[in-house]
Design goal:
With 385 residues, the chain is of the alpha+beta class. The chain contains nine helices and 19 strands. The strands form six sheets. It has a six-stranded mixed beta sheet, sandwiched between helices. The chain has a four-stranded antiparallel beta sheet with strand order 12-14-10-15, covered by helices on one side. It starts with 5 loop residues before the first helix and ends with a helix. The model has no long low-confidence stretch (mean pLDDT 96). The protein binds zinc ion. Zinc ion is lined by residues 73, 106-107, 140, 169. Zinc ion binds next to loops.
Length: 385
């Protein structure tokens, strides 16, 4: 069996312009690679009426448990203006020890490192005690409707057991080895609409200005601290993202005002407990001011935490050995597909340095690529020991 080189494979993946929701052959390409290593590969295409069809891949080698899964995505964000790049984002180039291209750290190279690590592992341990699997989606950077969420449902229905999952998202702020993510905060967005009574600005007693009510609501929601955080999480936070009246007349009290907010919250809350809390405040103030209200919510995912256990500690030790940095166990940052996977398996996230992700000249150091492959390889060795 051939050992796969992570740099070579990263370049091959970056050359496929899989700007979300386009697949550009990336899933089929990975499926072929993994088949050559002996994996059983299943390409899962999901679609619905409102969204584009998306290809995903579930691949597994071995029939025994435990099943250690690697999860990642092949889709990337758009490059923006290509002329702002120093190279073509889809013609990866190595310059001064850095590989530059879209997906270099988020997260095609991480997938390449894990495959390289698996190829090395299988060469020495062809009959290991367990299974290795890949859960790869093409719908992480987009709407995440036909991606990991549906693959997880599919696996659950088939009673496919995953015992631990490593999500390869770029987790390190500046240097490889700084941060493992063991959970994520939840995210809830909401839209509030307050309706009063329109009228002449000179006769305020004949109208009911909904702006006053909205200002009181915003103030109350912002003043009420949600919590102080806990051992694993920073404090939850509500932030307003817009307040709109859209009134062009200087002599009219408007009838309606809308505001939008987002809450990033820890595991002391759920989306339902937060909705109840917001509803209560909006209702009370609107009622007092004789205004009508409407609230719409969008839940992006509840907060979750993988309680640090032996696989987390083992990974932490390996990272420290390879990088000489003791990684922090963190729950900071935005959401990721771990929010779906945690429903069927404990997971941790560890990948490359995220400093240049989603930016022009996204890049990864070749040293980091080698080190990450080594880390993943040692995880496989230790996990199946
Ligand atoms: Zn990503």
């Amino acid at each position: 069996m051939k050992i796969i080189n992570e740099l070579q494979l990263s370049k091959e993946l970056i050359r496929l312009p899989s700007v979300t929701p386009r697949d550009a052959g990336a899933i089929r390409f990975l499926s072929k690679k993994l088949k050559k290593l002996g994996f059983n590969c299943k390409i899962l295409e999901f679609k619905d009426k409102k969204s584009k069809p998306i290809k995903n891949l579930y691949a597994r080698i071995g029939k025994k448990q435990p099943n250690l899964c690697y999860a990642g995505h092949t889709d990337v964000v758009p490059p923006g203006n290509i002329r702002d790049w120093s190279v073509n984002p889809f013609k990866p180039l190595v310059k001064k020890n850095y590989l530059i291209g879209r997906g270099a750290n988020d997260m095609k190279s991480s997938i390449a490192c894990f495959i390289a690590a698996v190829s090395k592992f299988l060469q020495k341990n062809s009959s290991f005690n367990g299974s290795i699997s890949f859960l790869i989606t093409g719908d992480e950077e987009g709407y995440a409707i036909n991606g990991t969420k549906k693959v997880v449902e599919y696996l659950r229905k088939r009673k496919e057991r995953i015992d631990f999952c490593i999500v390869g998202e770029p987790t390190n702020p500046k240097r490889l080895g700084e941060m493992i993510k063991i959970g994520r905060r939840g995210s809830l967005s909401g839209k509030i609409e307050i309706t009063g009574t329109q009228g002449h600005i000179a006769y305020p007693h004949l109208s009911n200005n909904p702006i006053n009510t909205m200002v009181a609501i915003c103030k109350k929601l912002k003043e009420n601290k949600l919590d102080k955080g806990n051992k694993n999480f920073q404090p939850s936070n509500l932030e307003f993202t817009s307040i709109n009246v859209d009134n062009k007349a200087h002599n009219v009290i408007p009838a309606r005002v809308r505001a939008q907010f987002n809450i990033r919250y820890n595991n002391l809350h759920t989306s339902s407990s937060l909705k109840r809390r917001v509803n209560l405040i909006v209702k009370r103030i609107s009622k007092k001011n004789k205004c009508n209200f409407k609230i719409d919510y969008m839940v992006n995912g509840d907060a979750f935490l993988t309680k640090p256990e032996k696989t987390v500690f083992m990974t932490q030790k390996i990272i420290k050995k390879v990088t000489k940095i003791n990684p922090k166990l963190s729950t900071t940052g935005g959401t990721s597909d771990a929010r779906f996977i945690r429903k069927i398996s404990p997971c941790l996230e560890f990948g490359l340095v995220n400093k240049t992700m989603h930016r022009v000249d996204e890049c990864v150091s070749l040293t980091d690529l080698r080190k990450l492959t080594k880390i993943y390889n040692h995880i496989l060795i230790e996990y199946f020991k």
